[in-house]
Amino acid sequence: MGLRAPLGTRDGVMDTVRKPQVAGTAAGAGTPGEVVRRTRRARDMTLAELGNLTGYSAAQVSRLERGKSAMTDVFVLQRFAQALGIPPQDFGLAPAEGGQPELPSQRTGPYPGRPTPRLGYPGHNGGEDPVRTRRQLLADLAVTAAAAMGAPVTGSDSGKPEEAQLGEALVAGLRDAMLGLGPAAADAPLNHLAAELRRASAEFNDCAYSHLALRLPRLISAGHRSTGGSDSFRVLAQAYLLATRILIKLDEPQLGWMAADRARQFADAGGAPVAVAEAARQQAVLARKAGWHDQALTLALNAADEPALRELGSTGSAQRGLLIQCAAYTVAHQRDQSGMRELTREAAAIARNLGAVTHLRDTNGGFSQATVQLHLISAETTAGDPSAAITAADALAPQALPTTERRALYFTDRAKAFAQWGRRDECIRALLQAEYWAPQETHARPAVKALVSGLLVSGRTTPALRGLAARTGVPHN
After folding, report:
1. Contact 280, 274 (CB under 8 A)
2. pLDDT score at 332
3. What is the dihedral of CA 68, 69, 74, 78, to 10 degrees?
4. Per the domain annotation, does 200 fall within a domain?
5. pTM over 0.85
6. Most buried of the four, 74, 260, 274, 464, by CB within 10 Å?
């Protein structure tokens, strides 16, 4: 999906513009993008609001402001001058004659369309028969069951401690359920499915992987057999959103894409706009992890622009805040610290207006000023400033975060910042605090294992580090 502004023409000839001469003007010195950004901020206008006025997506406005797309086309400059009340001369343009350019009624760069939902039972829609791999899948399912019941785990890597294998067990169970394999789920009424979803969400929030490894795959299998219509679709959408978050944590992008796509399809079929937006956010996370930063930014900011969210009051505003946070983190991956901080401030302003935590059924944890601050820790580290990340962490009490999962993430993100800063002892202490809050997640997450491995090979080891390595299944001899 392109983010470049359309080229302007006049009488079939492409317009060009001389280099803007903005020094000493009312807008102040700078490139056209800087002038636009400064003026937009002075008018207390969001990226989305300016996009609505000019016919661009918020992502396109962000790229133009940051110089990622050049503002050299006369028609584009005229649009922004008119929308912000900037004299054309500030962009090096002649005063307008014969009226202003007509602004489009709809933004360009539409929200990516969704394919027609295919809502049949997974694994039974034709094509290649997945049963050819059933022997290996059933072996993995046995690991899932053993881990979930606390039994000794045997199999391909029996040298790992049980909790270190929980992530593999959880992935195997979700894979089987998504392929339509494994034990057949019994028919269940809709109220039972909804209750199971609440329990699964609580287990995710508590990082109780041993229980989640059985409950969530079983819920997905049962949901596909339900005949509850749009209500069943909404339950399935939320179950797949939960699965997507877990698969992202466990570094399983292929299954993550599959789960996110199904979540979006079921949310759309069930008429659940917040879940549709959350699925877009998870797709943006996956796109970012794949290195598709432009696409990730477009997914997040265009989803935040959706009119349906603006009609949902505090719930819609909270979801918009989460999407803008996601966009900020994507910009951090591009090492654009100022752009990241601006988007973070926009998310923080939404959180301040909302006041207390807005709980979102589709996101497990909600949205608040504390969750914005949590995001900032990781974003500052990613943008290359671990000192700023630790400053952000010190400004946040982990007890202010709404769930155990978020508190564990706080300490893991703190550990990453210390690791980037070269402060090994503080990194180890932060990892041990994450383990205290959420031992099962800490032992299972690949991100933690990578940190521990890096610490083992980069300097002296300590009994605490070796113990953590043993519990996460990282070789340390």
Report:
1. no
2. 95
3. -70
4. yes
5. no
6. 260
